[in-house]
Design a protein that fits this description.
With about 70 residues, the chain is mostly helical. It contains 3 helices and no strands. The chain starts with a helix and ends with a helix.
Length: about 70
C-alpha cells in the first residue's frame, strides 16, 4: 500500500513541480557561488501527467573530457 502511494505520487508531475520549486528556494539560500541550477518550471503548462521545464544546455557529469576542457 505504501509503495503504491509512493509510486502514484512519483508519477504526479504537479507534485514534482512543487518539489522543484521548494528545492530551488532552499538551494538559493546557500548557493552563493551559483554552483547549482534548478530549471524553471512552467506551471501554466504542467499537469498531473506532464512536466514542462526549461531546457538547460550543459555537459553531462559522465563526460570527463569536456569537463576537464572547461576548467
Amino acid at each position: 500500500e505504501d509503495f503504491s502511494l509512493s509510486l502514484h505520487n512519483e508519477f504526479n508531475f504537479n507534485l514534482e513541480a512543487l518539489n522543484c520549486t521548494r528545492i530551488r528556494k532552499i538551494i538559493d539560500k546557500y548557493n552563493e557561488e551559483n554552483i547549482f541550477y534548478i530549471p524553471h518550471i512552467y506551471e501554466e503548462f504542467t499537469a498531473k501527467d506532464l512536466l514542462v521545464m526549461e531546457l538547460v544546455e550543459g555537459i553531462p557529469f559522465s563526460d570527463e573530457k569536456k569537463i576537464q576542457q572547461k576548467q
